[in-house]
């Protein structure tokens, strides 16, 4: 099922963990080199500029192949356009297979062919079904799911997240206004179901190289769950889907539930993340909390913007100050100590720069004269009589 060598994929996961341990100063550089020497793995290209360059090259190469096929079939392409879209999609998967078997992976070139193959196959289904949204979404969901199982590319997980959510939405649209009304609740249930499945999957995953994809899907479900019940999102989508305009002095049905949901969920994310020490969930909680403030501010402008910003800044300062005072001496659990798995030198340099600029602190310097005084040397003034 997997196109690449499983042993190489597992070794690549171990190498990434070894680099993480090296950055955290748990193992030495010599130990890291010994691990890299002993394990057979596919070297990934981490330079973003090179990956971008390979991606552009892949786009031109893919387009050139499809264009060449079109030139060879100019006489029949007009009457069989649908079939040629399937051929273009097949060329994307064929190019991915070729690059993987040539060990030309993890450089960005094969990603272009894989993305093109998945998207063009969905487009071909759309053309064949006269733009049926549900058919396109189901096709994209299935093809991205099996593509990730075979090629282990995170981009397929991203396509699966979007396509599967669209499948649920378009499936409810088939029920008419009732489906559109219950859409937020169904998406919440869907996000929760996938989240708990992925949570178990991260603990019992058989192959280590699938761990990143499962973790990506898990975090996507956290965002989807919050957005499904956010008051601003629900109200705007209700106006679009039901083709009605809700007056400013009226609320949507179950407004109290969505307001409560909008406030409680980010706080629960933050509390749970701090308790379970999940960094990504903590960031998602803070982002959600910021969007909650924006949602409340958008519909209820209680204070002028400048007063609200000042009070918000004071509140954040108080939370940060008392959190630092509480956590600075702790060495286990939730602490304020630097994380060894994150390079904190940038933060340290930033802190020194802020202190220097705010308080005028300057490093102590000792200026030594190149001329030696005393003894009647070149500078004179000595008692020995030498010039």
TrEMBL record:
This is DUF2157 domain-containing protein. Keywords: Membrane, Transmembrane, Transmembrane helix. It comes from Flavobacterium seoulense. The chain crosses the membrane at residues 48-77, 83-100, 112-128, 134-149, 154-172, 178-197, 209-234, 254-273, 280-296, 302-324.
